[in-house]
Design brief:
The complex is a heterotetramer.
Chain A: H1 5-23, H2 27-48, H3 70-101
Helix pairs in contact in A: 1-2, 2-3
Chain C: H1 2-6, H2 8-27, H3 31-59, E1 62-65, E2 87-90, H4 92-115, H5 122-141, H6 145-163, H7 171-201, H8 206-212, H9 217-233, H10 242-249, H11 252-276, H12 283-305, H13 311-336, H14 340-379, H15 395-409, H16 415-430, H17 432-457, H18 473-491, H19 493-509, H20 511-519
Antiparallel strand pairs in C: 1-2
Chain D: H1 5-27, H2 36-53, H3 56-62, H4 65-88, H5 123-151
The chains are: A mainly alpha, B mainly alpha, C mainly alpha, D mainly alpha.
């Protein structure tokens, strides 16, 4: 059971992020929740590809030939950059909303009835 | 009402993630034939020592093209959000 | 010449992306140059899409592998029979969706060339529109799960930025934020589900996972995550609160294409249910879940639409209710899969009805949103109470609105009726109550559109709209194309069903054929 | 919004070292850990260090916003250009047509641990450089827009 610690950390991070997203009322905190979930998902993807006693799949001066699975790291790279892009867009939208509504509290920001 | 629904989704997702955390063996992947192929043939076919870079740019290069587009979308999105706008463009939403 | 014909799937994505990358550079040379550049890019891409669709309908599924020397090298010889690269698998169902995307994308670019004249930030707008189109093409054509996630993110981000384009004192930005946050959440759930499948089957290709799949507890969780992520993105009821806001706040050309991008997520939902989890999941339970979602979407969409006073919000709620029809049609088809006798009589017509409704909905909903855009462009307001008597000046727009409204309500000569009839027939045999609900919702749709038609076009000529002119030429041409297709599909539904919809429906069910096309018949 | 004299001078000095380190990561992407995205991000931090340390107008005096935009566009066009070049040579999209051909980056690399040769891995270094330039331009423009968005709360600026 203790071997699965990384997946436990992933589950806790994703739940924390989801809790902040669903229960917090401030827009900036909700975006923090989204970035927490993103971090959790990235850690989950990386942890999927690990093999015991293996090193990073780089052959330049590698100490041993037992290597970790490379595809997952390519997926995580893409997922991280997607996370950066989404965060940049979300934060600039919150800045625009703050400029016009002068508040980032979700309850006041709902001029559009959902 | 909203907090009840949010609570249920949180609990359901939590249980499924914990079940997954317990059932996936960490460090012992069930199948790894695609990755072993990359490790074995990465150097001859792509010539790169860093197999992750060869996967990112050669075997799954199309993902990285999509990747660069996501970043370009974010840049153009931020650009049009902070653009200089003429006064009368806003529509009075009452 | 055959180099281009062989590389069509690759060019299908490369051309709009190249066009989007160079638009800021071309727009430094002036508006006319950018308009020509954007129109040329979209025309070329739609041509590619239609060419691929016609080749697929002739010669069956096209499999295009990225990064190999010849078209036939799908599986490297020494890799033990597994494809290792990204593969585009375009089967008749993807070809069916490609046709929709090509037609609607050409029309909205033609429309927005003239509707964006008076606004600022046009080069950013067209770059994002081209990226949104490329994202939707990628979502439809790809056969690789992670590649689908990347294109899902491109279309979500481009769509969210376009929804927030007008900013409108922060209201559009709020709608864009809601859309972006929800799409990101959906994408992350999708990614977790990909992780679950990857750790068990060590592949990202749908065909390989489908052929290796034996249902474990983890796969059921992955299926639930796939289902919620894609249901969230396609505007079905439980997660539909972003649809009315973003459809109402976005420029109307963008809304017409957001409908198509939601349908691409719906296509992905069907792909996951029918092909990825082909013989594994119990079709009855998943079919009934889809039916319940469909009925809920239909009913809530229409009942929320009637009290609306903003034209585009009203149409957005109708979009939610029409998505319910598609879910109902395909849900009944899936549920009927459980017993072959029921499937032969009911399932096939239900599937055909559901898929045909996707195309019809994209056409007439696009037409309706474009007409609402003309009114917004000319009268500057979307509020039904302030509009009136526009029929006197805007003849063509009134005709197009009538065509769209009658098509959405399912009146015989138009295409809405053809697909709704198929859905009524099959759901009535499957479960009469569903068919009754579907008909009631259709009548309510007609009622609300008659109200909109009356309040916008009929009545005396209002003083402030005395001199309102008809829409400019490109907008009329764009709407004319959609209107002609709506009428054409309405008058000759049987030919369209036999050539386009039937192969798509058979391709949807035949998951062995899908896996055989990629893995070379040893799956 | 500019910092004290000490920070400004150290920022000017550090700017050069971060740039060199960033380009090292981009260029050696196929040998050592790193690549286009990571290297581009490091170089972007060099520019953001300058934005934070100096006043916005000084920064815009040295580097124009359009130069970052052309930077980004040229990176993207180079990236999709190398991918499209594979089609023009008769292969399929995204084919690595340079590796193992002895040309520009074409030295053949046998399986096994070696100390890493620069001119290997076909089109991968070219794509690395392209993505590095693109990420460099992209991230800096995002930060430029967001800082200009903070400074001017009034409408339209």
């Amino acid at each position: 059971m203790i071997d699965n610690l990384p997946f436990l950390v992933v589950a806790i991070t994703i739940l924390l992020g989801l809790y902040t997203l669903l229960f917090r009322k401030d827009l900036i905190k909700m975006i923090m929740g989204i970035s927490l979930i993103e971090a959790g998902v990235n850690l989950f993807l990386i942890a999927l590809g690990y093999r015991w006693e293996s090193i990073a799949p780089i052959f330049t001066g590698a100490p041993s030939l037992a290597m970790v699975m490379p595809t997952v790291q390519a997926l995580t790279l893409t997922s991280i950059v997607i996370g950066v892009a989404t965060l940049a867009l979300l934060l600039s939208m919150v800045m625009i909303i703050y400029r016009h509504y002068h508040t980032t509290d979700v309850r006041e920001v709902t001029k559009l009835q959902g | 009402m909203r907090t009840v629904v949010a609570g249920i989704t949180l609990v359901v997702l939590g249980v499924s993630l914990l079940y997954a955390a317990i059932s996936i063996p960490f460090g012992y992947p069930a199948m790894s034939d695609m990755d072993d192929y990359f490790l074995a043939h990465g150097q001859e076919q792509t010539g790169a020592n860093n197999i992750v870079t060869s996967v990112v740019f050669d075997y799954r290069g199309f993902d990285t093209l999509g990747e660069a587009c996501v970043l370009f979308t974010a840049v153009s999105g931020v650009a049009i959000l902070f653009r200089l706008r003429k006064k009368e463009e806003d529509y009075e939403y009452e | 010449m055959d180099i281009i014909l062989d590389n069509l799937p690759g060019l299908l994505i490369a051309i709009p992306l190249l066009g989007a990358f160079l638009t800021p550079l071309v727009s430094r040379a002036g508006d006319a140059a950018r308009n020509i550049w954007v129109l040329l890019t979209v025309a070329l891409t739609s041509l590619c899409g239609l060419l691929i669709a016609s080749r697929v309908l002739e010669t069956g599924t096209i499999v295009y592998t990225f990064g190999v020397q010849h078209l036939s090298e799908i599986i490297p010889p020494d890799s033990g029979g597994i494809p290792i690269r990204i593969i585009f698998t375009i089967d008749p169902l993807s070809a069916f969706m490609l046709i929709i995307a090509s037609i609607v994308s050409f029309c909205i670019i033609l429309y927005s060339l003239s509707s964006m004249e008076k606004l600022s930030g046009k080069d950013g707008f067209f770059t994002l529109l081209l990226l949104l189109i490329a994202g939707v093409y990628g979502m439809i054509a790809t056969g690789d799960l992670f590649n689908f996630f990347v294109f899902l993110e491109i279309s979500s981000l481009a769509g969210a930025a376009l929804v927030a384009y007008r900013i409108d004192k922060g209201v559009a930005a709020e709608a864009g934020l809601k859309y972006a946050a929800l799409s990101t959440l959906g994408g992350l759930l999708f990614l977790v589900a990909i992780g679950f499948l990857y750790v068990q089957y060590n592949s990202l290709n749908m065909a390989v996972i489908a052929s290796r799949m034996n249902l474990t507890g983890l796969d059921i969780i992955a299926f639930v995550l796939f289902f919620t992520a894609l249901a969230m993105k396609c505007g079905a009821v439980p997660m539909h609160f972003w649809t009315p806001d973003s459809y109402a706040m976005a420029p109307s050309a963008v809304t017409a294409f957001l409908v198509v991008s939601s349908q691409a997520s719906l296509y992905a939902l069907f792909r996951v249910c029918f092909t990825l989890y082909g013989g594994q999941i119990n079709p009855l339970t998943v079919g009934w879940v889809m039916i319940i979602l469909g009925v809920l979407s239909m009913f809530i969409g229409v009942t929320m639409a009637i009290p609306q006073k903003d034209v585009k919000r009203l149409m957005a709620y109708h979009a939610v209710s029409q998505t319910g029809y598609m879910l109902l049609g395909v849900g009944v088809g899936l549920a009927a899969l459980s017993s072959t006798c029921m499937f032969n009589s009911v399932g096939m017509t239900a599937l055909k009805g559901g898929l045909f409704h996707i195309m019809n909905h994209a056409l007439y909903k696009g037409l309706l949103f474009l007409t609402a855009g003309v009114i917004m462009y000319r009268c500057g307001t979307r509020n039904l109470n302030q509009l009136g008597g526009l029929g006197h000046n805007m003849k063509w727009t009134m005709v197009f609105f009538m065509i769209g409204a009658l098509a959405i309500a399912g009146i015989p000569p138009f295409n809405g009726f053809a697909s709704k009839l198929l859905i009524y027939e099959s759901t009535f045999l499957f479960n009469p109550l569903l068919a009754v609900i579907a008909m009631v919702v259709s009548i309510l749709t007609l009622a609300s559109f008659v109200k909109v038609f009356h309040s916008m076009f009929m009545g005396p000529k209002l003083p402030e709209y005395e001199d309102v002119k008809e829409a400019p030429a490109p907008m009329l041409i764009a709407m004319a194309i959609l209107a002609i297709l709506v009428i054409l599909f309405g008058i000759f539904p049987q030919t369209v069903i036999d050539t386009l919809v039937a192969p798509a429906a058979t391709a949807l069910i035949d998951y062995h054929g899908y896996a055989a096309a990629v893995l070379g018949a040893q799956s | 919004m500019s910092m004290s004299k000490i920070i400004r001078t150290t920022a000017d000095v550090m700017f050069m070292f971060i740039m060199v380190f960033g380009f090292y990561i981009v260029l050696h992407g196929h040998l050592t850990p790193g690549g286009g995205f990571q290297g581009g991000a490091v170089i972007a931090t060099a520019f953001i260090l300058l934005i934070v340390a100096h006043h916005m107008d000084d920064f815009l005096g040295w580097f124009k916003k359009d130069s970052f935009q052309t930077c980004e566009m040229s990176g993207l066009v180079l990236f999709i250009g190398t991918a499209l070049a594979a089609i023009s040579l008769g292969y399929l999209f995204f084919m690595n047509f340079l590796s193992g051909k002895g040309g520009l980056f074409g030295q053949f690399v046998p399986f096994g641990i070696n100390q890493g040769f620069m001119s290997t891995a076909g089109t991968i270094p070219i794509m690395n450089i392209a993505v590095g330039i693109e990420v460099l331009g992209g991230l800096t423009i995002i930060i430029l827009y967001m800082t200009s968005g903070i400074q001017s709360p009034e409408e339209g600026k």
